[in-house]
Amino acid sequence: MHPPMMAPILWSATLCSLRGMRNPPEMPDAAAGRWARLRWLLGESPGLGRLLTVKLISIFGDGIFQAALAGVVLFSPERGADPRAIAAGFAVLLLPYSIIGPFAGGLLDRWDRRSVLLWANLLRAVFIVLCAGALAIGAPTAAVLLLALCAVGVSRFVAAGISAALPHVVSRRLLVPANSVFATIGSVVNSLGASTGLLILGLVGAGDRVASVVVLFSVIGSFGGAAVAASFARHALGPERASAGAPAMADTVLHSVLSGLGRGAVAVWRAPSVTGVLLAIGAHRIVFGVDTLVMVLILRGPLAGEDGAVGGLAGFGVAVGLTAAGMLLAAVATPVLLPRLGRALTVLLALAVALAVQLLLVAALAEAPLLAAAFLLGLAGQTIKLTGDAAMQTDIRDARRGQVFALQDTMFNMAFVLAIAAAAAIVPADGQSRALILAVGGFYALAIVGVLVNAASRPTPTNRLRATGYSQG
After folding, report:
1. Of 153, 192, 323, 425, which is least surrounded by CB within 10 A?
2. What is the pLDDT of residues 291-301, one digit of tens each?
3. Which DSSP category does 170 fall into?
4. What is the CATH superfamily name and number for domain 1-246?
5. How far apart, in whole angstroms, are the C-alpha atoms of residue 78 and residue 201?
């Protein structure tokens, strides 16, 4: 239940953000509809359509691949993965987003991005074919996960390359709306890919042979993305020749990434409102990681489906959908709450709701309450996340904003994976551990205390509990 696997269809969130921007000349307003805006953007920037096609084809294949991998690792009767294997599966899917992503950005400032998009897609295709072959012959789970890790890691170069290339196919005045369109449509298509993979596995079964076919089918995203990327001229997507001539020294990239994360951490501490929100985000990701592992173990257990809820892989798909629905509701509700409550109170309200859900629903350790909890935790978690975005966009100066967002992304995924890894060492195979659920719920309580102390001890205009206004709260 994580954004790369089940990103919700957040059209409304995009339109809200677009309404808050000053429209470029002749750009249709929000009332004209999202498709009118997309058509206008594509007409204004011919190369944008091809770059968007690379993104959509690639991310659709990613969605199918990730769903197939999740199905075979989490629910395949042939593999019977224990909690540690499940934790390894989540690590393979998510850690490359935090570990490889920042380094990919540094290297993309030195390499021809058109070549990166072409060869990374082809290399990913090779790893996908090898992964499908490993599944077909019943290779050990460790071998399958290693090949999957290589495929997902290469995907980060594709995603980062598309983001870095965007300013070369669209004018500066259209960059913000183009980014918004790319992010939203990407989320939609990734969800469609994941849903396609889960639907096939749900209808046919999550065995190795079926999963290998679904994994192999996902290679269309890599070949299609490579074909479209090849249509660009060399160096058409950057970087500028001056930066491209810089030596691609690993230690230079490493120093750049680590120093950037360090400067981002300093910027977070100097902005009290951001400090409090990131504290809440970290706590939520820890709890949500443990809850996700427990839910998977219960949904695949021998008693799955006996309380009338949907169990197995289908139940996991329902949980993913409910989490996405909660996130969608948060995209609508958060802009309403922030001007009325301010950031600190909005975060405290979300943490309080999450704590109640943890104690009353998740602690029941039954399918129906867990599915309800998936929706409510998706709502609470995304409310915190969107509040954090607002704080970082307004209280962090532009020169440090990218570094802070990179730091948040790293923390976002690593807290989730590390929590699953720690819980996997102690949780029973059937997931029935009420003590663990209650214990990790304490992170929500600690976060509430931390936000209150931070707001009281570091009172700034944007960090007071009674502050109001979207940009002042």
Report:
1. 425
2. 999 998 888 76
3. S
4. MFS general substrate transporter like domains (1.20.1250.20)
5. 14
